[in-house]
Known about the structure:
Layout: E1 2-5, E2 13-14, E3 21-26, H1 30-38, H2 44-50, E4 58-61, E5 66-75, E6 83-92, E7 96-101, H3 126-159, H4 166-197, H5 207-270, H6 284-305
Helix pairs in contact: 3-4, 3-5, 4-5, 5-6
Amino acid sequence: MIKIFKTFRGYNEISKVEDGCWINVTKPTGEEIERLTGEFQLPADAINDILDTDERPRVEFEDTWSLIIMRIPIESVHNSVPFHTVPLGIFLTKNFTLTLCLQDNEILPISQPSPFREQYREISDSINFILRLFLRAGNSYLKYLKQINQMTSTIEQDLEKSIKNSELNKLLKMEKCLVYFITSIKSNEIVLAKLRSSKKITSEINEDLLEDALIENKQALEMAQIYSDIQSGMMDAFASVISNNLNVVMKQLTLISIILMIPTLIASIFGMNVPNFMENSIIAMPGILIGSLILSVLGVLLFRKRQWF
Length: 309
């Protein structure tokens, strides 16, 4: 979908490209990609790079356009991993600024695309617009990291009683999310540093905004690394917990089997087709049953005294 706005605030949608306008593109179709390369004169290879889910963040300057790629967090709906990251590309030209992403996202949602709806001051500079996107991405990373922490706590409670690997697999998916986040945040931080030192950027950079974006990214990176270290230790610990829980279950089943062997052994002995002193006795059957029951109870008491049950 392609939407064209008069300014970066995203309030006034227009039908044609004007000087200083902002174009927001999300989940482009084949026809829309042809429009980007034809009408907007953007390079096809750069567009394909942005639409590649594994594309790394970078800064690229050409004569007629500049490209900045960052990675933003996405909540997965139909994926086994709850969160992952995708590229968000920003093209800067003399006439317009274009943002392109292959999926719907919270950084620039297609329904309400403006990242500054809470701001009363108009932002007309494209570089400071990009810094706002980095700042918003940092906030999204922190938000999703808190959700990952809550989900991990729920998995931990289930793991304490579990003897299966399903909860351990869920914890592994949380670890995979953190790896995605750490890699993407580090790359975004490098891009911010390049923007700060680049001589190709002629407009004045808002140092306060840049500092805020760097702080948010650094905080998200530190939090993701802390959570990742904690989960790495938990994976080993809970693998031992699952093994121990399984050993306890096997021990209980073994003890139950031993208790059941007592009446089985007695019934087998007296059920043999050989003479014995009770074959003509009236109380043989009740006596054998009572004896088996008494020995089984004694076995249970013995195991409980040794705290095996």
